[in-house]
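Re: weekly structure request thread

Next one in the queue (366 aa):
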Amino acid sequence: MTKPLGQNGHEEPDQATADAVNATKPAVSATSADAVKPAEGRIAAEEKPVETGQPQESGSEDSAPAQSSRRVPLILVAVALVLVLAAGIYMLWADHATGNQSAQKPSSGASTAQVSHGPSGDAKAYKALQEVTVKPSVADDQGGLTVSAKGVGSKKKVADAPTLEIFMDPMCPWCGKVGRVIDPQLQRMISAGQINVTYNFLNFLDSASSDQYSSRVDNALAMVAQEDPDHLPAFAAAVFAADFQPNESSYQAVSDARLADKAVGVGVPKALADRFAQGTYRPWVDKVNAYAITRKDAKDAKGEFSTPTIMINGRVWDLTAAAKSQGGLEHLDRALLKALGLKSQDVGHQGKMPSIGAQGKALAVK
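Done, posted below.
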């Protein structure tokens, strides 16, 4: 497996990220039981002057009706004051209750902040990826390019089919070895609508080449995904062919013309291949890589990120254990079919779907 240079596992969100998350928490209302108590005290204070049952010290029986008539307005005023203060207490209580409900239910602001932080990777890297102005419209917000029998784009997934998410660098030797084993089956399953595949093309191995080979290939793949999606799976497999993929430890330059010829060889129009050298999506490729290597959901059991990584329905699939169970890497395709719950004789046949469906976990491979 090949790890990004200087990358050991995933970066934890920095303090700025933590602050951003905290900022999305609803503020708890300052209204409390203590704030209500003074209002209760005011009610008690206003009630004391109104003591209708107390005898009067002065006056005669002739003045009793007059005294009673004076008490009636006083009682009405007192009652009015009580009602006003009671209404005030109710409003305070209602505000307090509303504050508690707000603290329990996520607000629209919190939801927006969660989206802007990305599903699992570094917040700053995710934000930078979203801010790239020139990028394939068919890519998802994490930089993935999903291909299915319906075309390219996350909205074109086959609903009942499992999704494989693959992280690879064109210079990664193990990506080539794995790809050469499983790509033929993947292409057949994609065409038959049996599987969706999301490609994440990385470029951290640019440092192993003299001409940023990984970035140039990733850009070409993105251009094909955008403009000629039917040939994306075949082109993605072609760049890992044993007679084409350069050696990571002894790189020999691969020209733009040779890369274009490789694309044309699998059916990509020459007019498109000749524009690879323009590097249309190179800035986007950089941001995809910077974010992808921080994704926590793509870490292996040791908490590290490496290529190739394959996820089945959102969970990392243990390639090493799977290959070992079948007697070696050369039989990884057999292990993959078992993990998906698909018989080898059913590969490429429409209507014969993997048993795990779109949500199930990969089956244990024995």
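The two ends are 22 Å apart (CA to CA). Confidence is low (pLDDT under 50) at residues 7-70, 92-116.
Next request, please.
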